[in-house]
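General statements about sequence and structure are easier to judge against a single worked case. For one protein, we set the task of working out the structure tokens from the amino acid sequence alone. This step matters because it turns folding into a mapping between discrete strings. The amino acid sequence and the backbone structure tokens for this protein are reproduced below.
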Amino acid sequence: MSKTSLTSTVFLKEIRETLRDKRVILGVIVSPLLVTPLLIGTVLFFAGKKEIEKNASIVEVGIVEKSAFPEFIDQLKEDEGFNTHEFDSREAAQQAIEDRAIRAALIVSENAQTEFSSNNSAPLEILFNLANENSQFAQSRLKSFIAKFDKDTLAGRIETARLPENFAKPTKVKTTNIAKSSSTASFVLGLFLPYIIVMSAAFGGIQTAFDLCAGEKERGTMETLLVSPASRYEIVTGKLLTILTISFVASCCAITGIIAPIAFGLEFFKKLLGDSISINFISIIWVMLIVIPLALLTSSLLLVISSFARNQKEAQTYILPFFSIVILPAVLSTVLGAESHIFTAFIPILNISLTMKQIFGDLFDPLYFGISLATSFLYAFLAMRLAASFFQREQILFRT
């Protein structure tokens, strides 16, 4: 029997036993494909519903006029977005905010009207409660109204002074977004999706990896496998392919579980961002391909840990260094930009994460991609050799 067929036999055996474990099915497939989309969809639904309700709501605000300022107050009272209440003092308005009778209050200073009539700035104060979300929204709505009032008043002052319209605009700036709609969405996905993919590739195969080596030692079935016709290298390869398959499936399921609700919810995002957003599915395919060396590296490291450990409980105690190796570069990738220095292409995990950001951001750099891919496969190969060497050493493989 050829080496390839023996490796395939070991691989198929391990896959069958892995798929019998309901924990693997639930954690790798069911949760990412069903639970994650349900959670994201629920959050997006209620977030969108809340945003729509807030924008359509009438805000309860108070007014304290220490002096009459009809030019401003009359417009505020006529605005359909506000329901105004008058108070005699600042303290009374503050108490009303604390009692949630109103959400914010506008304090008109004693010299507001005088300053305004003199073409100066009328002093106003907004009282609100930072610890209350509705009060924060009321403060934001008042600031937007004041900004509109300032703009209209400035136009009137310029007209009264018979100044040119551009008097208050020393510059005229036009911004043009040259990004395609798919690039905009891909950029947003690139901010967080690489981190999630790295976590899925790294931790999706943990249960399988620990069961394949440390678990077999614990059950006493490792000896039976070692006396089979398959060589130790073929056994290692078959087990590694099993962990790699589970890790890759976990990554693909995680990607699908996140992209699916976003894709179905594009209409909601278009209402918020306009028609400048869509998903580039070609980028998603490229990312799934780049996950292979990442999953191969993490699977090899997990196999090393599982091979060294006496049992699954001991393997779990060794997982902290693995967490550090994976999480630190993954978190760092959320901080660094896609166009990072070329030396980052040599840093494991980080190079794949930044390559994903480049793919999502239409910043594909062939040199960076090539170095990242080559070094990732090199690191994975070294980890594979280390795992294979553990299987050759009896004092490690049968530690008691």
